[in-house]
Design goal:
Strand 4 and strand 5 form a beta hairpin. Helix 1 packs parallel to helix 3. This protein has two domains: 69 residues, no CATH class; 181 residues, Rossmann fold. It contains ten helices and ten strands. It is globular, with a radius of gyration of 20 Å. The strands form two sheets. A seven-stranded mixed sheet has the order 6-2-1-7-8-10-9, covered by helices on one side. It is α/β, with parallel strands linked by helices and 269 residues long. The longest helix has 14 residues. The protein binds S-adenosylmethionine. The site of S-adenosylmethionine has 23 residues, from helix 6.
Length: 269
């Protein structure tokens, strides 16, 4: 018998695609309706073929049974999605924690997997608001994608990325450029962007605070544990690690004490 053709995006029935959208949004993932349906279908079909499944029916069965696959799909569909103050309560908690700490020596904060730069620029806002504690802050930001790093360096964002920025900070930190917003040069020069693959064997830079949010979800369990082990090596005792709200320390919890478990803020032991 000839092999059936590979599953492609246009093979989804309306019901199948609707159910996948409902599963993703119930898990706090992307709202599928906000995006181009053909493009999303194509990417889900790619995932189905990657898993060597024959079509949408067995993939839906997998999604219903396996929360990790729902997270993985959500990550694959929202590769570079980010925004300023993503999860505002996390940044509020982080700001309070940082304000309590007085450091005698310069600090390095690292946004690992920084996408378009929203996260490290948010750190630059936090550094700007810090009471003077006698220490300088250097902010570095990395991503595996050169293309997204170019975008990050340009500092130009559309309004949806700024929806959690207060009106005061919008006016103070951005200039309007056509329909977009460009972050002021004072902050653009504050963040140093560099290409870095977290799965590469090269050593990680040392840092006092590491944000690695909504990046581990792209990796399998062994890769996540390897990355977490290397973060532990990059941080001094007392250094901070912040993960995304859907991410965990897996079995690397022994390296870290939770400072705010709900916000996924941990301290290196
Ligand atoms: C969903 S974005 C997260 C952005 C930001 N951290 C946030 O929470 O808003 C995930 C980013 O991780 C990056 N990424 C994926 N695999 C990576 C890797 N192996 N090393 C470094 N960055 C990676 C992607 O290019 C993407 O920009």
């Amino acid at each position: 018998m000839p092999k059936p053709p590979p599953f492609v995006g246009s093979d989804f029935t309306v019901e199948e695609f609707t159910e996948i959208g409902a599963i993703l949004s119930a898990a706090g993932g992307m709202i599928v309706e906000h995006y181009n349906a053909a493009c999303i279908k194509r990417r889900i079909a790619l995932r189905i073929r990657e898993l060597q499944l024959p079509g949408a029916v067995p993939y839906l069965a997998l999604l219903r049974a396996d929360a990790d696959e729902v997270q993985r799909l959500s990550a694959l569909l929202s590769l570079h999605v980010s925004m300023f103050y993503r999860d505002p309560t996390t940044f509020a908690a982080l700001r309070s924690l940082l304000a309590e700490r007085s450091q005698a020596r310069p600090q390095r904060w690292w946004s690992a997997g920084c996408a378009g730069g929203e996260e490290p620029y948010t750190l630059a806002f936090l550094a700007d608001r810090r009471p003077v504690l006698g220490s300088q802050v250097e902010i570095v930001a990395s991503d595996v994608s050169l293309e997204i790093l170019d975008k990050a360096r340009s500092g130009v964002f559309n309004a949806t990325h700024l929806s959690k920025v207060s009106a005061v900070e919008q006016a103070r930190h951005f200039s309007v450029v056509g329909r977009d917003y460009q972050i002021n040069a004072r902050f653009r020069t504050k963040v140093q962007f560099f290409q870095h693959d977290l799965l590469d064997a090269a050593p990680y830079p040392a840092a006092d605070l590491i944000l690695c949010r909504y990046v581990l979800i792209y990796f399998n369990a062994a890769e996540q544990e390897e990355v977490l082990t290397r973060f532990a090596a990059a941080l001094p005792a007392g250094g901070l690690l912040v993960l995304g709200r859907t991410e965990t320390l897996r079995d690397r919890a022994g390296f870290f004490a939770p400072l705010n478990a709900q916000e996924r803020i941990y301290q290196r032991i």
